[in-house]
Design a protein that fits this description.
Elements: H1 16-24, H2 62-86, H3 90-122
Amino acid sequence: MTHDIAPDDALTERPTGLAMRRAARGRCPACGEGRLFSRYLKVADECPACHEDLHHQRADDGPAYLTILIVSHLGAPLLLASFVAWRPSPMTMLVSFSLGAIVLSLAMLPVIKGAMVGLQWARRMHGFGGRSSGVAA
């Protein structure tokens, strides 16, 4: 006697790279259509397009740490290179690099947080492994 087993959502492959790219662009990691964020960094509870549950995400402080790491690793060599090349005044360097770090951090933070949420969704971390609320049983 053979049993026909329907493919379960837990067994289907979720492409990690695609999910991270979609979420980094601020879109749902599952469908790529709905908005991931309801506000600047507030992840929506579910996708408005496919109704995938997104409230499971646990990005916490990870995106902030990665943003600080990347911005500081970009800023430090630029700071040294600009000082050696042009010898600007300390106040010019303080103002320009402070503003640059703030703008770059604010621009990168949603991208990195989105990518982390996409990674968690693709790897079925923190409750993302269950069926979505939009899928009928």
